[in-house]
Amino acid sequence: MSLARDLAEFLAPYRASDLPAQTVEYAAMLIASTMASAAMGSTLQSAQIIRDLASERGGTPEAGLWFGNGKKLPAGDAAQVNAVMSDAAASDDSDLRNIVHCGTPLTATALALAERTGANGEAVLAAIVLAYELAGRIIDAIPKVRARGFHGSTVAIFAATGAAGRLLRLDAEQMTHAVALAATSTGGLVKAADTSTAREYHAGLATVNGIQAARAAERGYRAEERILEMPLGFFEAFGGEDGAAAAAVALRDLGRSWDIVTDMAVKLVPGGHPYHALAEAAANAARDGNIDPEVVESITVSRPGMTTLTGPLHPANLIDMAHSPAYFLAAGVADREFSWMHAGPAKIADPVIHRLIDKVRVGPPPSENTARYRQGATVTIRTTDGREVTSTVYVPKGAGILGIDWADIDAKYRTLVPLSGLPEHQIEASLAVIHRVRDVTDVSELTRLLQIAR
């Protein structure tokens, strides 16, 4: 036996009807969120390069490119392009444990494979929920993976593999080897992702390699099924963990809850998810104290494990902005909100925000309620007349554990999808299909609506 087999056998019997309603609802929300992020990313050079490369390769027409011209490509290539578009905008979703973006490979893979296999919407939703659980269990087992220098795509590959395996109808034996193949097909360095468009390149590779692992296993390809937990295996190499102990963590309380609810968070604003609560708390404090930017003496942030400001201090572009905690804090104070407009060039260059950036400080980590901080933060604004206003946000908005409102998802979709050039009537029609995707018999009903006549 192996961990890969234990997980494959646990997930194999489930159908959408067996899953809690909230998990299936969140899966549909992930589809809308991922497509919205992809619309924003579709205009970026990195996504256009991967789209052009895939189009040049050509191949069997199996799945469509979102916001494309109707041309279809092999499912793996289409999924890779769509994943790169979503991740490029840094506006998709994150796992609150160590900021793995599972929704992008899940949605890109599930829809591409559904187009290829003819699977219905209910099968897509089940694949998203169950593959999130597969990836989430591995996330649980290696909490130090990011600190060791590896990007979240190292684990996100299992989301793609799980979704592809479900839609290819792999049995437990095949899924076991698909997981094992994924474990030895992954990579990505966090420093490259933090400072360049390598981030979305990682997402695309995790997606296409995850699909390839499932397709190879479908045809009988076999790997070392104990590769996750064996000495010098995945858990030890990537996570620095004892394999047997990490495997026990991965199986702990299996089936008691679902990670798509307890650990997933949709981005309701742009940029790196670790900094969303910083902006939220800063905006709350500025509103609560009715504080004008001109009277701010200092902005102090406190969170467990935070000792210094990371990333670019004064961002100059979208990549900088996405990884600048100082920008999130200063923008939240300056505008008393943080929204999609803060990913635009006007706000990134705003002199008011940049003056406030120089007033950002890191305070001592909190000593109380530390377990409640899940990518959360406490922010204190001090004014020149000596006033102090503090706000704490333990978990950012959009986290499944807080409850996610369709109104927020719809607003995100209607804000970002127009950036792709998709006409308004198709935006509304596609969003309506996502809302009822569980009843859709052919997912091409949705993907056709994402094509732009040119």
Explain what this protein looks like in three dimensions.
With 454 residues, this protein is of the alpha+beta class. Helix content is 51%, strand content 7%. It contains 21 helices and 8 strands. It has helices at residues 3-11, 21-41, 45-57, 75-88, 103-117, 121-141, 153-167, 172-183, 190-195, 198-218, 234-239, 243-251, 259-262, 276-288, 318-322, 325-335, 345-348, 351-357, 406-416, 424-435, 444-447, and strands at residues 63-64, 72-73, 93-95, 264-266, 296-302, 360-362, 377-383, 388-393. The strands form 3 sheets. A 4-stranded mixed beta sheet has the order 6-5-7-8. Strand 7 (377-383) and strand 8 form a beta hairpin. Helix 1 crosses helix 8 (172-183), helix 5 (103-117) runs antiparallel to helix 6 (121-141) and helix 8 (172-183) runs antiparallel to helix 10 (198-218). The longest helix has 21 residues, at 21-41. The protein is globular, with a radius of gyration of 21 Å. The chain starts with a helix and ends in a 7-residue tail after the last helix.
Give the topology, please.
Elements: H1 3-11, H2 21-41, H3 45-57, E1 63-64, E2 72-73, H4 75-88, E3 93-95, H5 103-117, H6 121-141, H7 153-167, H8 172-183, H9 190-195, H10 198-218, H11 234-239, H12 243-251, H13 259-262, E4 264-266, H14 276-288, E5 296-302, H15 318-322, H16 325-335, H17 345-348, H18 351-357, E6 360-362, E7 377-383, E8 388-393, H19 406-416, H20 424-435, H21 444-447
Parallel strand pairs: 5-6
Antiparallel strand pairs: 1-2, 3-4, 5-7, 7-8
Helix pairs in contact: 1-8, 2-4, 2-5, 2-6, 2-19, 3-4, 4-5, 4-10, 5-6, 5-7, 5-10, 6-7, 6-12, 7-8, 7-10, 8-10, 14-16, 16-18
